TrEMBL record:
Family (UniProt): Belongs to the metallo-dependent hydrolases superfamily. Hydantoinase/dihydropyrimidinase family.
Function statement: Catalyzes the stereospecific hydrolysis of the cyclic amide bond of D-hydantoin derivatives.
TM spans (from-to): none
Protein name: D-hydantoinase
Keywords: Hydrolase, Metal-binding, Phosphoprotein
Length: 499
């Protein structure tokens, strides 16, 4: 057969004339998709059954948000306002095509029951792909010996553990137990690092003196609570040489501690979130209870801590940028459980951000020259895929990857308002901000999910992604440290492939 007689390759979808950015480079090409997977990236592809002209658009890998609280009971027993439908719809409108959310064990829960219930909720409602982390509140023998290994084998290859909150807090001994299992099995441990006793000691004294308003939430969480716990968490991780990921990093001293540990060869990774780049503690100093809309843990700091977080993203100390979307309404179901009598200690902790995560960073980071487009892609998508075992399926525009794609209009200007968002929170801490750049079309496994500002898919059409083992070797700054001499006497198995 002559080359000219070769039948043209049939694509289900082509996205043509776009300016494509991955974490490593930007180039012009067309994308050919078949059965939900990218099968060609080249110039001059023939039109597919569905042919999209992306001229003038920037085509990026779909966002991955690896820290979202969806349809989850908090440590204080409060149910989030977003279920898997509203949460994933809101994510998709903001350019995110994969979320990881938390199947949360509370102290008396059986882990298999938690997972069964959470899987059912997601399966019926999610419109984009999703995976789970397990929140572990009771690392007893059953959990350590049986449940965690089974969970990892089922594709839930990361756990979140807490150093604070009465009902979730683990002590250092328990943290070591969890880290050891994760190290043996190749899972990632995410740590909420705050010193519980520092916070409750200060909070009690504030309350005794009548300082109950939302602004005192930030006062009660001194940055030392975060930096001390982070230092301790890193020491525990170094003791047995098991990777750890510090989530929602807020403070300048904490960024510094993480950076120093990385330079020593510690296997420490870190996440930060929009609230630590774009909000400050003083935003919660508002009349009445309005400040509750800005309260999360750890709390945002000041201009200097924002600068430290930017720097941490820029120099690779902070690896992933997630929303920590914690959707609580401004009423008795969330922020104000006791109405006008609610103290800062009783408000549900957390701020919404799943839909604005990418647009805020695009506008303030890329458009204002703080980040390159490639760094934006790494922080919002590619690094999450490596950190949490989603690569090579997610996180890049490449042959063989899922066709999770976002067409960005870099010129579109938007004034943020709660009404334009698709979550069920009813407010946004970013109300009134002007941003430039918006994700105008969103594809998940080749399916058009968002177009013309309309949702195009059915509830339940998202898929559970069983994740492989995390591969967080990117951004290593020094060879991995060895363990203490004790390890040869107690038979710790190899913690990572890098040893
Ligand atoms: O305040 C926050 N971050 N609430 C959400 C729960 C958590 O600790 O991530
Ligand atoms: Zn947390
Ligand atoms: Zn969280």
């Amino acid at each position: 057969m002559q080359p000219s007689d070769t039948p043209p390759v049939e694509f289900d979808l082509t996205i043509r004339n776009g300016r494509i950015s991955n974490a490593d480079r930007t180039f012009f090409a067309d994308i050919g998709v078949r059965n939900g997977v990218i099968v060609e990236v080249a110039r001059g592809l023939p039109a597919g059954k569905q042919d999209v002209d992306a001229g003038g658009m920037w085509v990026l890998p779909g966002g991955i948000d690896s820290h979202t609280h969806i349809e989850q009971l908090s440590g204080m027993g409060v149910m989030c306002a977003d279920d898997f439908y509203s949460g994933t719809v809101s994510a998709a409108f903001g350019g995110t095509t994969t979320i990881l959310s938390f199947a949360a064990q509370h102290r008396n829960d059986r882990i298999p029951d938690v997972l069964e219930d959470y899987s059912r909720r997601a399966r019926e409602k999610a419109v984009i792909d999703y995976g789970f982390h397990l929140i572990l509140a009771n690392p007893d023998e059953q959990a350590l010996m049986h449940d965690l290994p089974a969970v990892i084998d089922a594709g839930i290859t990361s756990f979140k553990v807490y150093m604070t909150y009465d009902k979730l807090k683990l002590d250092d001994y328990q943290l070591l137990d969890v880290l050891a299992v994760a190290g043996e099995r190749g899972a990632m441990v995410m740590l909420h690092a705050e010193n519980h006793d520092m916070i409750r000691w200060v909070a009690r004294r504030l309350l005794e003196r009548g300082h109950t308003a939302p602004k005192f939430h930030a006062v009660s969480h001194d940055p030392l609570a975060e930096s001390e716990a982070t230092h301790r968490a890193i020491a525990l991780s170094r003791l047995i040489n098991v990777p750890v990921l510090i989530v929602h990093v807020a403070g300048a001293e904490t960024v510094d501690i993480i950076r120093k540990a990385q330079h020593l060869g510690a296997q420490v990774y870190a996440e930060s979130c929009p609230q630590y780049l774009f909000l400050e503690a003083k935003d919660s100093d508002l009349p009445g209870f309005e400040g509750a809309k800005f309260c999360c843990s750890p709390p945002p700091g000041d201009k200097a801590s924002q600068e430290a977080v930017w720097q941490g993203f820029k120099d690779g100390t902070l690896n992933v940028y997630s929303s920590d979307h914690a959707p609580y309404r401004f009423d008795e179901s969330g922020k104000l459980p006791k109405g006008d009598a609610t103290t800062f200690k009783e408000m549900a902790n957390g701020v919404p951000g799943i839909e604005l995560r990418l647009p805020l960073l695009f506008s303030e980071g890329v458009m204002k020259g703080r980040l390159t487009l490639e760094e934006f892609v790494a922080l919002t998508s590619t690094n999450h895929a490596h950190m949490y075992g989603l690569a090579p399926r997610k996180g890049a525009i490449a042959v063989g990857a899922d066709a999770d794609l976002v067409l960005w209009d870099p010129n579109r200007k938007t004034v943020v308002s709660a009404e334009m968002l698709h979550d069920r929170v009813g407010y946004t801490p970013y109300e009134g901000r002007e941003i430039q750049g918006w994700p105008v079309e969103v594809y998940s496994r080749g399916r058009c999910v968002i177009k013309d500002n309309q949702l195009q898919v059915e509830r339940g059409s998202g898929q559970f992604i069983a994740r492989s083992r995390p591969d967080p070797v990117l951004n290593r700054r020094a060879p991995a440290e060895g363990r203490g001499i004790f390890s040869q006497f107690i038979g710790l198995k190899s913690a990572t492939a890098t040893e």
